[in-house]
Amino acid sequence: MQNITKITLDSENFSFFSPPKIGEEVGQVLTIFADGRVDFSAGTSTEEVRHIEKQVDASTAETVLGMVAEKFQQPDDQMDFATDVGTWQLTISYPDRNAKFTGSVFPNPRLSDVSDTIRKVTAIPDLWVFDGIQLY
Prior knowledge:
Layout lengths: L5 E7 L14 E7 L3 E7 L4 E8 L2 H14 L15 E7 L4 E7 L7 H11 L14
Antiparallel strand pairs: 1-2, 1-5, 2-3, 3-4, 5-6
Helix pairs in contact: 1-2
């Protein structure tokens, strides 16, 4: 497997049937770098309301990046897609290219283990990841 330099997960939790309340987060961007840097930001429709930068162990970060890469082997992999729920866009960055994937923010058994691992490793409160479940 080619070395991954980082992953960026851009999640949006917006639905027309349940629009966000004023001041409620509607977007989150999480970037995990191979060297262990973690950058997170969350915002409302008008402003950034949270920004977290932290460092995790580099070998742990590489394990997470490897887990993500295993789940997303081909750029054309089809993810389950639901309407009127939030969406996520994942970018896996390699030294010479980027691979992009899109899906819906809802429980997906295929991605639950990687979602849980990312939450545990980053310890960021109310992190949506792929499934939208806010456990940590």
